[in-house]
Amino acid sequence: MSDTAQLLETYQPHLKYDQQEMYFADAAEMFVRSPGMRLRRAGDATDFKVAGAGLDLAFLSSDPYPGTQFRWAEWDTLGCPDRNYASRAATLHMDPNIANVVYGHVVEDSDRVTWLQYWYCYFYNDYNLIGRIIRAGLHEGDWEMVQLRLGGPDRTPDLAVYAQHRHAEPRAWSRVEKVAGTQRPVVYVARGSHAAYFAAGRHWTGVWFDHADGRRASPDRQRLVEVVSGDATRRWIRWLGHWGDTRSAGAPQDDDSPRSPGVHRQWLDPLALLDAPPAAAPAVEDRPPAPAAPRIAVARTGETARLTWDATGEAPRALTITINSPDERRPPQTRNVEVDGTRGEVELPTVEPGKAYDIRVSEVSREGLASPAARADLARG
After folding, report:
1. pLDDT digits (tens, 9 = 90+) for 126-162
2. Residue 78 belongs to what domain range?
3. Is 371 helix (H, G, I), strand (E, B) or coil?
4. Is 250 in the same domain as 317?
5. Structural domains of the chain, count
6. Helix or strand or coil: residue 88?
């Protein structure tokens, strides 16, 4: 193992997912391997390459594209033709060659100080997983990152910087939570948006709130893939196009599908991330309070199950329901169900006899605020 790989492994962050998350940090290959995934050239509505017929990361690593005269362009896009993000992401995450990957990069800043960067790829950015039920903050693809400065004695960390949407939050290494018995920082991943936070809780984004409770059973590590400058096999990390073909509709919380890590300023200039300070949070007294968690119970009804819910305050607009089974390789699935009144029942048709489930439910207020999640367990039938 190289010295840089050893450093990346020693300080590799531990991601703690929210209990209602359904998209996880996986290998970039998911954008070129899932059936029908396509590459389109800027300004061309036809498929240039498709998965299974020449589209792979090696194809994205050559400029011009192999066997053609076409150069990379900013609005070349990778896209999902059927928009069935939840199902595709779940299937991809069950592939051990795809699931749980982080891309590590070591770079020096202008002061010759070394930084460790950790880049995470997600299939979809779904801000509706917090239950707000909006048409913004939804885009194919998501690249997120954290970085650590080795400015301490003997090249030990002295500063961590966590990316959060258009902002970033720095924190002295001495104040960063670590995995017990290690020097690995803990990262609380926001539900749906995947922004990185130093602590669990509800966080202001500058537009609305992120939720990152850290209560999902999360893998101890992602498989670390080191990306070394000049490695031709991973030149795709600097491909100029977009990982997804979503265009922003112009709302404050909207974004285009993301571009490659190597296109971002901080890839070569880690100090650039410090130019984007954290979003200023409203004063505590000005923040709208979150609703309380609902009271829930779940019981089997033949081939399905029924969720009974009871709001503890005003009538919610919807429920955000996450269904997970320890007996399945399939990752948890989250959906919003619009409801009326302060109590009711929801059928859960996806549960199977003979399997145990844990059900997490949060309320969505009329203002679009999410409550903490309540949990109910369903024993094997």
Report:
1. 877 876 655 555 778 899 999 999 999 989 999 999 9
2. 3-275
3. coil
4. no
5. 2
6. helix
